[in-house]
């Protein structure tokens, strides 16, 4: 059978767009405290929402058993419960759609032997990441059902970073396949040392963004560039370990997320300048993405975490991952061509 690298690349771009969508919906789910509204994991039957009043009452009864209900939503009506249920249900529904949108075409392309040589294992690994992402999502939800009133920030960060890593892998593979469609002799782009460094610096910023969401750290201060009138806010709690301060203290996490952003900016400007002579559009995309992301981050803080602004901040964060992946791939393509 004829291999179809361009068709496979287009399919990966569609799945990547769905991942961007689920990242945004996941952010809104967190911001509206909706993530614990569904207390069971039913990978297959869970696709059908409650349809009768009895089913809704049963779901609501399950929610009233967990600590979050007593601490945050005590006295909530069934109508209010349906609102938070919608966001978590929609989030899980998109997850199922992504799984099917990936698995069915993957099996189709594989059965018809249309996957280029050397790409089957990579495509299979991407599907494994999607499955892992779903598992992390449930572990995240489960962490908030017994002794906490919210999901554990560490699990939230793991869940989000896995999604963004999967997104980057999708885009990178699609770019390789588009190049292969243009030139049957093209080799996959290399991940250079500089590209790895740029990705690592961005990943740290994304990690702290996820911890910000998990710890509700965005509400520690609503002024900028100072935090409650100070450059350094100091820890929220005293007598804690360095590890706790770096990853569990809302004020310190907020401080790091604010100021590590500028380390990321320096690296991304450097990346964009290296990319510009090779592919100007990728360079422009990087500049636009990180510039917009910074402005949205500041606006989110100063609005005391407005849901719309925070959702846009998460959206542009995912688009920034795509732009940076594109730029690193451009450099990796040049490195591959030089070796060849």
Q: How is this structure best described in words?
A:
The chain has 340 residues and is mainly α. The model has no long low-confidence stretch (mean pLDDT 93). 71% of the residues lie in helices and 0% in strands. It is flat and about 65 Å long. It has eleven helices and no strands. The longest helix is centred in the N-terminal third of the chain and has 34 residues, at 78-111. Helix 4 packs antiparallel against helix 5, helix 8 (242-248) crosses helix 9 and helix 9 (250-275) runs antiparallel to helix 10.
Largest sheet: none
What's the shape? flat
User: Can you count the beta strands?
Assistant: 0
Average pLDDT metric: 93
Nutshell version of this structure?
The protein is 71% helix and 0% strand. By secondary structure, it is mostly helical.
Write the layout of secondary structure elements.
Elements: H1 5-31, H2 53-63, H3 67-71, H4 78-111, H5 120-142, H6 153-182, H7 193-215, H8 242-248, H9 250-275, H10 280-302, H11 307-339
Provide tags for this entry.
flat; 11 helices; single chain; mainly alpha; 340 residues; 0% strand
